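#struct-help
A.M.: can someone run this one for me? Single chain, 496 residues.
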Amino acid sequence: MNKKGITLVALVITVIVLLILAGVVISIGVGSNGLFEKTNSAVEGWNAKATEENVTISNALAILNQISGDNPPSTLPVGWNEEAVADAVTETSTIAGVNKERIVPIPSGFVASNYQGTGDEHTGREDQVASGLVIYQLDKTSTIEDVASITEITTENHTLALTNLNQYVWIPVDDINSMIMCQSNAKLPENGEDIAKVCNIELENGVLKCTNPAHESTSTALCGRLYYETEFSSNNISGKTEYTKAPKFELRDQVYSLNITNNYREPSVVTNKSSSDLNTILTGTSYDGVQTNHGFGTSNGTSASSKFLEDMETEFLKMAKSVYTYGGFYISRYEIGGSISNITSKMNQIVIRNTSAANNWYRMYAGLKGTVGGASSQMIWGCEYDQAMKFIGSSAYTGHRAWSLATTNTDNATKSGTHTDDIMNNIYDLEGNLREWTVEANGVEYRVCRGRYLVNTYYGNYYPATERRYEAPTNYNSPTDTAGDISSRRTLYVTI
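D.P.: on it. Structure tokens below:
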């Protein structure tokens, strides 16, 4: 009996101990700090670390892709076209009296110069926005191996790049209203500013327009703000006259008109038909009214001129919207060279000039249109030329007699960029080679020329880069003129 009792008691005690142990085991496994919980936490922690490492690897790959050029930067300003922009240059500096940070887009197919002004006779820095940021169009198809291999511009390859790669200079435009207006902009009254007369250009729902309620009827009829009024002075030097023409960039009272004296305007047609009514002007059968001059329309007169005007207006709006989006545009560093079918902007090129019908204004206008890498190309507009003068500042406002007398070539032209004195903010040939046709119109038959041209017989005087001329006593600057003293200049606007 005693043995059996002891056995039952031992059994009961064993069961109780086992139950206690089971409870402990369960508590360890499933409690708030139990084994299962710790295992789950370990798994979650491992997953989190794996995710973090994947992000790090992705970021590293993105940086490598940027360096190799496989992908555009991911930090471009909102609204920029990442397929058209390969890189950006940021600089805080003072330009035209405005100190601010500016971000400059570098179009795909181009590289910003790293040249800092040593190594050859062209000693100006090319890597600063304030003094003229230069971009070079890369040419991997060049038959010159050293040119095809260029991926950046340095002191070592600078001389080679100058004569073998196309170059352009950034023109900053901080305020689109200094460059573009709508056709309702008007002169201010004598007693002060009338806000109802002044345009305010903004981008609304993807449309660039004037937001002044008083201009509602012409809100999208945009045109160039042209600074034809200047502070004029002259200085007699040894029987020669040195002229100063400083544009009044502070004015906002420009007028777009079809029928006033010196009615500088753009975009517009010239048909040799005088009228204040556009429909009447379009019926003209000269210049833009001749279908074979530009290839638009199906017959002379309204068909030709209206279609040509439509093309110019379309190109103008694209340019204006790009300038608004990116804060500026590019201008060719030199007067145009090469050939009409393959226009270049390189140093030491024979400059294209209007020596025949094959090189008149219409052929230059057509030859300059196109796509260049991540940018579109055009003949320079008058409002773009004005912005270039504003960017350069006072050195563009006065004629320089040393530049004007730099050569006595009988053909009145030299190769592009060959006068190292005729350079302003890294832009060559503005004062000392040929006059330059723009898209700007005047009167019933003229396409306006800008700049000074290099010929000692040009009245024997010294004119500045700001010189604006729509006619001369001996040569009339109609778009079909072939006097041989006019070239042009290309501009690029980054694709949006």
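A.M.: thanks! Residues 331 and 491 are 4 Å apart (CA to CA).
D.P.: also worth noting: The chain has two domains: 2-68, 176-494.
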